[in-house]
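Hey L., structure's done. Input below.
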Amino acid sequence: MASGKWLGILPLQILRKVKMSELRKKFFTKPLLNIIKRVLPPISQTEREAMEAGEVWWDAQLLSGKPDWKQLLDMGPPELSEEEQAFLDGPVEELCKMVNDWQISFVEHDIPEPVWEFLRKNRFFGIIIPKKYGGLGFSPTAHAEIVTKISTRSNTVGVTVMVPNSLGPGELLLAHGTQEQKDHYLPRLADGTDIPCFGLTSPQAGSDAAAMIDRGEVCYGDYKGEKVLGMRVNWHKRYITLGPIATVLGLAFKLYDPEHILGDKEELGITVALVPTDTEGVTIGQRHLPAMQAFQNGPNWGKDVFIPMEWIIGGQENVGKGWEMLMSALAAGRGISLPSLSTGGAKMAARTTGAYARIREQFNIPVGRFEGVQRRLAEIAAIAFVLDSAHKTTTRALDDGIKPAVITAIMKASATGGLRQAIDDAMDIHAGKAIMDGPLNYLGNAYRAVPVAITVEGANLLTRSLMIFGQGAIRCHPYILDEMLAAENPNTEEGLEQLDRLLPKHMWFQVKTLLRGVFHGWTVGLFASSPRNVGGAAKYFRQINRYSAVLTLVTEVSLITLGGELKRKELISSRLGDVLSQLYLLSCTLKRFYDDGNPKDDLPLLEYAMRDGLHKIEVQLLEVFQNFPRPFFGQIMHFLTMPWGHSIHTASDRQARACAELLLNPSKTRDRLTRGVFLGNPGDGIDIVEQAFDKVCASERAREKLKKGGIRTLSRESVEEGLQRNLISSEEADALREAADAVDKAIQVDHFDHLAREAGQIQ
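Output:
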């Protein structure tokens, strides 16, 4: 009886649901579909390929409003294999000992041949190439650690090792090449027989690769005595690293088929080919000199160069897939190359600046004891801590095969920007020591190199304004991209069905986002969750959860109220991108603290970094609300999410002093923070300062005895006076004499004969 009753009701229930679905489509989904089509701009093919390149990862968690910390913390720290560690301790250390950056940059303007030969012999150009092709087959973490350490010795050598292993032909061949191409080129790239470069940037199209005018046309031509199908290509490229010495050129160009040899389409799209540089019609130009950096970089041209179809990476079937291939490579490589150089530079700045601020005295006290200097020291230490943490977390994800496109863009922009700030602060503290060029100056060349890092692999201005949030908001959102694609579906009915399935889920997501964002906003994150066993970092986990919820809500409001206009509101987009970037960097910093076992001694670093980053998040959000194109919605978002205004202040003076002291004194924290910095050969600038630091710290107690006796200066004369007055023992006097001599040597700068032009002096 009961079953019969339900059997009778069931068709009515189905009919009711069908009617409700049809009514929803007719009166809600279809009008909304029309609005989406009208408000949102069409997605170009290049934009779609950029958004679909790589994967989403922790960025999607941060834009979910409720990050799953277990996913991040359970990854564990990055680890090196025994072979990778041995390579760092062996060939990498030996390479650093061989390198003289002054000689490379200001005397020879090139890497000496013995160093080139060492790089080839030890497969430095084949770090990412599998062993079966003669490479080292190392992990992304090992790749990053190698480049980081080399860059603390020489940017020129670091860039030279970096380029063949990322964003170049090797990576593209591994991902997209034919087996024949891999068998031929990868062994030659691994042992340095072939030196690769990649030609993307042209004068008319810097960061806008889609605007390049480099052009190829499908045609038949002669190759190895036979008439074969290929392309006649003309191009002009510039800023090509390793270009002047390359033997094989990865070339990006737009391909056309005016005679319709391949089919009906005339515009085939961006295509990527491998072209030996000795091919007829190829001209390799003289070198550029980017900001006085000595790595090989220059222009090249092609005039009516015939390229067989088999030279396309992946063969003819990859015609027109070049942009997709490049975006795929960027999704991984951009997270390793320049972030490694930047992390190395920031760690070097932290190590040397702390040491110099301890040994350099003014008014008879170390300059590192002045509060203004301490604030800068704390900033350098925090930058190095955050960059190293984010660097490690990102390469750990890459080790697992994840290719997070938005996150690697965050890493490139944030790491190079952080390096700029760290080097600026270091220069200010070193003062004249960092200004006078010469072999003893370990900062000047790094300072000149910073604008190069800021500019290449996507200029930071464009990355910040257009890419991070512009791409991340859509790519990481659980529904927006699918809704946009549904709106663009040429089959209207099919698009309507897709959108109708997505809308209820999206609306429920919006309800949860609103409730979560408002609750955490009004309670300033006090009731947000935190993982267990995170020591003194629990309050910062709660704040990341709070601002993840707020950013998600602001993103929803921005997408709904601005639609396609958001793409053109670059200042709003850049500020929201900064919020997403800070949330990622701070998440990595918390992970690193957790991975290290929540060391109490590192808390000053953590507190300074977290307070600085969270304060920046609040500043950017308040500026979004203040400048929102729809003022009413800006005010509503301010009221709902940050009703109390600023709730997190930057680190206090006490916290800054504690952070600075970590660089001014020997400690496990200082060593952990600056691990991987090459400390120089005997007599190098860094080595001299490091030796003085060790001697000054070791003789600190004896120095205090002199001060109690009224002798405040450190010199041989003051030591003799203290010895005569029995303020110190003979052993203490010996230690103080060594310290005084070491300091005197460390604060010296180079000087040259104003007429000198001989090699080894000044060029």
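The CA atoms of residues 289 and 355 lie 32 Å apart. DSSP finds 31 helices and nine strands in the chain.

-- N.
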